[in-house]
Amino acid sequence: MSATATAFKIFKILLAQGQLDRSTDSDLFLDFRQPQVRGILADLEEELEFTIVETPGTLYLVPNADNDLLGFVTKDLREWVAKGARLADAFLLCYIIMFMLYLFYGGKNINPKQRDFLRVSTLIEELDNRFGLALHDRAEAELLDEQYGINFVKIAELWDSKKSFEEGSRKHKISTVLNACRLLEREKLIYLVDDKEIRTTKKLDDLMLHYYLQESRVDEIRRFFAQGGDTGAQDQPHPDN
Predict the structure, then answer these.
(1) CA dihedral defined by 82, 65, 208, 34, rounded to 10 degrees?
(2) Domain formed by 74-226, architecture
């Protein structure tokens, strides 16, 4: 098989499945490292605005942040929340996801994963604390607005307007959090246990440890959430921390 045919076969699998596993496609996994194949795929990465992330046993396709074709844009997030959802709803969804990832992977050791699972109730309590601090100290929240370009006060007010633990509507906190979880679950990044417990998948662990948690990104994430107060939630610390 030519290098071009091999490269496009790898790309086709990545496009269809989001990943290519050595356990099921060992030849293609090894072919990925051939210079000619890698060069063709590098051209595709540049033209189609995505990155192929190589981990010890799997290749992953990760769209660039501004990729309208393969990734999520604000319109997609608003539609995921509900028909007619506002921009603030999409931003709240993003914040919940980012904060969830921070609670899992915000450690400072060699392995930054801090816990094996996170209770939905714990996540809601932590969000209550974060947004409560923002509403209490609006000056600090406005600094976040200026620094990161988000209307943090507006997001906090939207969260605060929701009821606590009732189900069945995006106006309730638990439904809002579960909706964010289901988006990650659809992408095979987490899975829910009885809608009460959040656990990460191998895919999310791989991507966080081998791609997203590069030092510059880690520092930025820590700076952002450090300004929102201490994180006291410790459902189950990871054994490496």
Answers:
(1) 130
(2) Orthogonal Bundle (1.10)
